[in-house]
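ok trying again, last paste got cut off:
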Amino acid sequence: MKQRTQVCIAGGGPAGMMLGVLLARAGVAVTVLEKHADFLRDFRGDTIHPSTLQIMDELGWLEEFLTLPHQKVRQLFGQFGQTRLQMADFSHLPVKAPYIAMMPQWDLLNFLARKGRSYPSFELKMQTEAVDLIMGDGRVVGVKSETGGTTTDVFADLVVAADGRGSLLRDRAGLVPQEFGAPMDVLWFRLPRLAGDTDETQGRFDAGLVFVMLNRGDYWQCAYVIPKGGDATVRAAGLAAFQASVAKILPVDASRAKAITDWDQVKLLTVKVDRLLEWARPGLLCIGDAAHAMSPVGGVGVNLAVQDAVATANALTWPLLMGTLTFDDLKRVQARRDRPTRATQRLQLLMQNTVISRSLSAKGTITPPLLLRVLLALPFVSRIPARLIGLGFRPEHVEAVEAR
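nice, full thing came through this time. structure:
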């Protein structure tokens, strides 16, 4: 089978869905390929930052979006041993929604899918995986896709690889990311949240332990940070030992750790930080995790992916509509987004290597790093973390008009 479209996007995550909707909104014919039957996958990035909420506002969708169940996080706190610090206060940000919205990623993606389907040039093909590139005249001219054993050649003016940190299309194009390493992996699980619990999203740092609790309404989504490659060691020690370790650092009743009754409840997130030196080949552009895998530090991955999508739509809508798209247009997207990506990753690596690694290897009492204490003690400087986490180094704004 054969199909023709203007833009074929591989991957229905935040980058792929947002880009698809923005291009279709402007009248570009878009086909988004998503290999799963739905978006219901747990322990994905659920932090919708002020930068993404601002995009929703610029599109006129914020009020509707916020009718979906969510929890508002206006401050982030960190506890180092017995010392508690406010790490970020988003309430001062100059945006319509100065807070993080804690929302399951599937709700974000389903929302974007509904918006996309309201435009006649938008097509979302579920259970359809991009399995290879189609080449012609020295450039990418489409993708081979598979749906339930049926193969379809999707020809397009542009193929966008938004298929995640293990991007198949990126590999097929011979694009190899530069690895920066990470000292940790993360075990994700849920614990019950009771009526008397705090509302705060918080991180706790203690000797040999790093633990993050995210308020998800009726439960806590928990991140238990372990040394890189330490998953097998943790599991070999047994579930009771893991429960005891979680109980030791819980800011709520320690007995809550008993809710972990099976290792199947504990999911491993393998942390990696990498970045492509080149995001594009003629006819192909990588965005989101396919271009740069982010550390979970700061929860910025989803929002950086959305920023990539907005920048891509801003740069490529008119060339696509006019039929003048060139390789230079694709390279302009990287030129726009590469610097904020690099700056964000530098900060993440700094936090990984100084704060997280230091806590995981500590044997005695933990105290906040001196630099962190000094920065957070200065009134104006203390607002910088909120801006960097909430808005990023280069917030993007919707420029492409809606087709009438």
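cool. The mean pLDDT is 92. The longest strand covers residues 150-161.
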